[in-house]
Amino acid sequence: MLETRDLTIRFGGHVAVDRVSCAFAPGTLTAIVGPNGAGKTTYFNLISGQLPATEGRVLLNGEDITRLPAPLRTHRGLGRAFQLTQLFPNLTVQENVRLAVQARESGRRGLGLDLLSVWLDRKGWIDEARRILDSVRLDDKRDAHASSLPHGDQRKLEVALLMALDPKVYMFDEPTAGMSVDEVPVVLDLIRTLQRRRDRLILLVEHKMDVVRELADRIVVLHNGQLVADGEPAAVIASPVVQQAYLGVVPEDEDGLAPAPAERREPTESQRHAGRDAGAA
User: Is there a shared CATH topology between the 1-77+168-281 domain and the 83-166 domain?
Assistant: First the structure.
């Protein structure tokens, strides 16, 4: 169980996240949506530890992790994929994933810098890295440097890193951003696979409402840093205030029809003369 209680952050006089209280249970995928500047990524940053909260708390399985730095939250089971890729650019694709597998196993077993253990376990880590890379369709590029990959493949590699950490909580911040139409299904299929396990909690920030409709068990809507809607996707999406303010849908009038666009009128002769005179001036 992940929970935020009155979570708040202020930057000077600006309140970017304003007393957001929400609880998330394993086995669910919650989509966090809202217009640009609503506070979605900032909320993610507060949960994962990239930003310190001004007020409020973050709890994971009942433990208060509000003051823990990001690396310790990762060890507690929070996994985060960013809007911008976070990779080791000068290492190969396989080495990126192998290091994530090694970090996970070393943390679980307390291996630290035991070089003998590292050497003995290296083959197993490489084999698991290869398996994960195959699942994201990057095994044929395992020897390429991460910096040489096109943007879509870098996003897939970041998802592979997150899978290698095997967290209790998966946090995806616009995982399909910058991907081509052909690349998007690969990442969505991976998220579906995680979702079907029903033993992991998945949070998803996403602007593409077709993706949200397809994947989400629940939708949370933020606006001006505040939680303004929370519930089942059909109910939240159908809400008039959400459709108008956050999804850009024009509300219907009382007869069930959208307002007609204003009639376009041609300028009069005097208006055309006025326009030419203004241009000459």
Answer: yes
Domain ranges across the chain: 1-77+168-281, 83-166
How many beta carbons lie within 10 A of that of residue 168, not counting itself? 16
Per the CB < 8 A criterion, the answer to whether 77 and 169 are in contact is: yes
Residue 96: both structure tokens together: 């990126």
> What's the CATH number of domain 1-77+168-281, 3.30.2020.10, 3.40.50.300, 3.30.450.40, 3.40.309.10?
3.40.50.300
163 within 8 A of 190, measured Cβ to Cβ: yes
Give pLDDT tens digits for 90-120. 999 999 999 989 888 776 555 454 555 555 5
φ/ψ of 18, rounded to 5, equals -125, 95
Q: Please tell me the pTM assigned to this model.
A: 0.78
Distances in whole angstroms, Cα of residue 278 to Cα of each of 50, 155, 266, 275: 54, 52, 18, 5
Beta strand pairing call for 201-205 and 169-173: parallel
Residues in CB range of 237: below 8 A, 6 or more apart: 209, 213, 219, 243, 247
147: DSSP letter = G
Domain 83-166 CATH superfamily: P-loop containing nucleotide triphosphate hydrolases (3.40.50.300)
pLDDT tens, position by position, 221-247: 998 999 999 999 999 988 876 777 555
Would you say 193 and 162 are in contact if contact means Cβ atoms under 8 Å apart?
A: no
Average pLDDT, the chain: 83
